[in-house]
Amino acid sequence: SAVISQKPSRDICQRGTSLTIQCQVDSQVTMMFWYRQQPGQSLTLIATANQGSEATYESGFVIDKFPISRPNLTFSTLTVSNMSPEDSSIYLCSVEGDRGGDTQYFGPGTRLTVL
Amino acid sequence: AQSVAQPEDQVNVAEGNPLTVKCTYSVSGNPYLFWYVQYPNRGLQFLLKYITGDNLVKGSYGFEAEFNKSQTSFHLKKPSALVSDSALYFCAVRDGPYQKVTFGTGTKLQVIP
Prior knowledge:
The structure holds 2 protein chains of 2 kinds.
Chain A: E1 4-7, E2 10-13, E3 19-25, E4 31-37, E5 43-50, E6 56-57, E7 68-72, E8 75-80, E9 89-96, E10 104-106, E11 110-114
Parallel strand pairs in A: 2-11
Antiparallel strand pairs in A: 1-3, 3-8, 4-5, 4-9, 5-6, 7-8, 9-10, 9-11
Chain B: E1 3-5, E2 10-14, E3 19-21, E4 24-26, E5 32-38, E6 44-50, E7 56-58, E8 64-68, E9 73-78, E10 87-94, E11 101-103, E12 107-112
Parallel strand pairs in B: 2-12
Antiparallel strand pairs in B: 1-4, 3-9, 5-6, 5-10, 7-8, 8-9, 10-11, 10-12
């Protein structure tokens, strides 16, 4: 399985600011995903990021709030813009495995607290 | 639409006893089923999956899961629980390769020494 790292691992931010989360994979992958896990909740898909195309956002998530970059096959960023306390969550990067798209593997997550 | 249900928010089991974490699913086609574990302040770790073949699948750390098509279930099991197994467990389903993954609400497993 791919080895996935995320930066930062955690951050505490002020309301109204923005934070960019980085996701690095040790191998080339076509599909990368960004999830949000709110406190005590399950995972919710924010968007799918494929290299060379615009990210595809799920219902309830918009590009202005969560802009995503995917400059190459091993890297992606998610920005949380104009943050509010409701954005306090764990943000997880995920990739499809190397066996025909049957398993997703996850990074360690970024724990964001917005004051 | 696909869905996953984990009926128990928390499961408590004594160390050394067998454990079961329940999961049922709904999907239109043939299901791809997964179990992930999340330790405190960590991301999700893949435990095991069922796609096709033997209904009993074995995974990491001594866990196994049984696929039951008639009951649309995919319960996670381990013969002898360890305190270190205490964590949050997520069941997930997708309706084929590269399709969206739907996660259950998670079950907190507490293994009591």
